């Protein structure tokens, strides 16, 4: 009887794990769909953390433009003042969602430090996902091995927040508001 009970518990555990995995995949893909609905949108804002100290983003206008979208990938051009070298790349994978940071030189060639990021961690929602640093990132930028990037969109799709955490401490936050060029 105890052997049968043990088998039943293993089966229930496996089924419960599959349900959790399906929910996780579902939420990351729903988040992708929320972002895809923003295609053609422009968000403008500023760095809100850190408030003190040196940061190359301080005092510069931040602009995120959702301008390259398809069913599997969204490319969001991210400008820091006049510097337009950055693009956030969200890619829908079979199991989750990935976020990569594509950095380019003015001539379009890849920067030495590019394509870093990670895959969604399974704890997000349809309005927020977090992306711990993947192995490629850990090897490319050892200091960033504990990075976790989080991206969220408000339910009304008017506010976009990009947050970076390192060593479980806030490192950078940008808050951007949906706008039109005329309202800037």
Whole-number tally of structural domains: 1
CATH homologous superfamily name?
Calycin beta-barrel core domain
| Architecture (CATH level 2) name | Beta Barrel
* Poorly predicted ranges: 5-24
Radius of gyration: 19 Å
Q: Please trace the helix and strand order, writing H or E for each element.
A: HEEEEEEEHEEE
Largest sheet: 10 strands, antiparallel
- Can you give the mean pLDDT? 86
Structural class assignment = alpha+beta
The percentage of residues in β strands lies in: 35-45%
The CATH C-level class name = Mainly Beta
Number of helical stretches of at least 4 residues? 2
Distance between the termini: 71 Å
Tell me the total number of β-strands: 10
Question: How are the SSEs placed, and which strands pair?
Answer:
Elements: H1 2-36, E1 42-49, E2 62-69, E3 73-80, E4 83-92, E5 97-103, E6 116-119, E7 128-132, H2 135-140, E8 148-153, E9 159-166, E10 169-179
Antiparallel strand pairs: 1-2, 1-10, 2-3, 3-4, 4-5, 5-6, 7-8, 8-9, 9-10
Account of the protein in words:
The protein is of the alpha+beta class and 184 residues long. It has helices spanning 2-36, 135-140, and strands spanning 42-49, 62-69, 73-80, 83-92, 97-103, 116-119, 128-132, 148-153, 159-166, 169-179. The protein has one domain: Lipocalin (Beta Barrel), CATH 2.40.128. A ten-stranded antiparallel β-sheet has the order 6-5-4-3-2-1-10-9-8-7. The longest helix is centred in the N-terminal third of the chain and has 35 residues, at 2-36. The radius of gyration is 19 Å and the shape is globular. The model is unreliable at 5-24 (pLDDT under 50).
């Amino acid at each position: 009887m105890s052997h049968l009970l043990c088998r039943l518990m293993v089966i229930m555990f496996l089924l419960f794990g599959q349900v959790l995995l399906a929910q996780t995949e579902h939420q990351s893909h729903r988040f992708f769909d929320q972002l895809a609905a923003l295609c053609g949108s422009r968000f403008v804002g500023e760095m809100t953390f850190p408030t003190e100290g040196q940061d190359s983003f301080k005092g510069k206008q931040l602009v995120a433009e959702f301008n390259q979208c398809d069913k599997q990938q969204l490319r969001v051009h991210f400008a820091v003042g006049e510097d337009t070298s950055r693009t956030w790349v969200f890619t829908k994978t079979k199991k989750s969602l990935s976020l990569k940071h594509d950095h380019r030189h003015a001539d379009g060639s890849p920067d030495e430090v590019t394509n870093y990021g990670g895959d969604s961690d399974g704890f997000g929602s349809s309005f927020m996902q977090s992306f711990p640093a993947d192995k490629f990132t850990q090897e490319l930028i050892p200091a960033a091995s504990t990075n976790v990037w989080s991206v969220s969109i408000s339910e009304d799709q008017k506010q976009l927040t990009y947050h970076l955490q390192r060593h479980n401490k806030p490192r950078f936050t940008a808050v951007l508001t949906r706008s039109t060029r005329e309202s800037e």
